[in-house]
Predict the structure.
Amino acid sequence: MRAQSFAAVALLVVVAGCAGNQGAQPQTGDTRFIAGDGKITLFQAADRKVAPPVEGETLDGGTATLAAHKGKVVVLNFWASWCAPCRAEAPVLKDISAKTKADGVEFLGIDFKDRKADALAFERSHKSGYPSIFDQPGKVALSFQGTVPPAAIPSTLIIDRQGRIAARALGAVKYNDLLDAVTKVGNER
């Protein structure tokens, strides 16, 4: 039994070492961060809450706000460069963003608890095609507390044309699930 415990601890040390020195980023086994299954929950129109104000400096030095997209469907994605599921879902978000743009759907990333240099490298690598707010302190994420646990990453929200939270996914989204949800919310009038 003692040998098994030692082996388990040794494995954790090796796995944690693979993560490298991430400084302020969560480490392997960090229980402050919540993994999700990526399933999308659609909220009935009568049950939808108005999204809080979202604004901030983007990774490219500009400014982005949720209010700038009033009257449009907006997909908000909370991500970080150190998050493996975020890297896995990046091509899905990029493709659906490009596919739905002509239908008036906007995407906005929220880079959460990240180093700016790492986030910029992620953006150069994945070329999302939409802006991301640099939310290192997590203020934007905290404003959604009650809808999205502040420690759930990645998380994706779909905001309807009235500025209400129409859908939520905790964890990496799947292509068809996200496209179907965006289409349903987009077809509402």
